[in-house]
Amino acid sequence: MTTGIRGGPQGAAVTFENVTKDYGQVRAVDELSLDIAQGRTVAFLGPNGAGKSTSIDMLLGLRRPTSGTVRVFGKPPHDAITAGHVGAMLQSGGLLSDVTVRELVTLMSRLHPRPLPVDDVLERANITEIAERKADKLSGGQTQRVRFAIAIAGDSDLIVLDEPTTGMDVENRQIFWAAMKTQAERGKTILFATHYLEEADQIADQVVVINKGRLLANGTAADIKAQAGFQKISFRLPGVTRDRLLMLPNVVSLEVINERVLIQTSDSDKTFYSILDAGYRPEEIEITALGLEQAFVAITQQDNGADAPEARAEDAR
């Protein structure tokens, strides 16, 4: 297992200290303070326009903060990248034209201060079978896998991934995350932004949620679900309509689909007892905590001042 390197506070891999980024009159990142420990797998979540991409750009030295400090293993981002500590997979930008996948990966490996064997990189990224294809003649999913290969072409300590599985089919998404698990087991720090919230729930040790450039939540997936403060009630009730249930107490959102009632509530006991007091006798009852996707939507909608968290999780980009 590869050991980490000494970074900032308590060996942090990434530190944001009171970081602000303004574009004219628009504040994209607002006094963001955040530490990411070495060896963690961290999901970075937020709706469109939340400041995720700007934060990642500052972490990678592509943009400078208006105020505050970003450190990567205790160094300015440019110095950490020059030293080979960081590998990145970004959404934007195309691949070089008129070169094969192997030639591209070979080039990126040779440019890295700590290169890895090209065949190993191709295998880890599951692109050995397309190694001789032109890099600009690939499908969307194949292009994502090549971008991932570029991110791991050197023995970097931090791997930053922006929407890494976009365009991949289910099988390749599973292969991709198996490869990332191997990286994590080698002691690498992994920071990824995704709109597939089930990936964050299943894979991340730590979940960071930002909105309007501010930190809303930071903890395990279980912590984020608990912070939302809502539960789900689901049951079957033939003949009931949504209008007949709208006056139930503590209801945040309510749907009736084919006699199945789905409720989000801030107090499951009060809501459910009121259902019984109203004379209803529901069947097939389930009362559970919110999933990460629903908790994410609830937290961000609360911050936006909305009454009901009904935004789509696909907006978490």
TrEMBL record:
Bilayer-crossing regions: none
GO MF, one example: ATP binding
Membrane topology annotation: Peripheral membrane protein
Annotated Gene Ontology cellular component terms: plasma membrane
InterPro entries xref list: AAA+_ATPase, ABC_transporter-like_ATP-bd, ABC_transporter_ATP-binding, P-loop_NTPase
Position of the signal peptide: none
Domain ABC transporter: 14-237
GO biological process per UniProt: response to antibiotic
Subcellular location: Cell membrane
Pfam families: ABC_tran
Coiled-coil parts of chain: none
Keywords: Antibiotic resistance, ATP-binding, Nucleotide-binding, Transport
Name of the protein this chain belongs to: ABC transporter ATP-binding protein
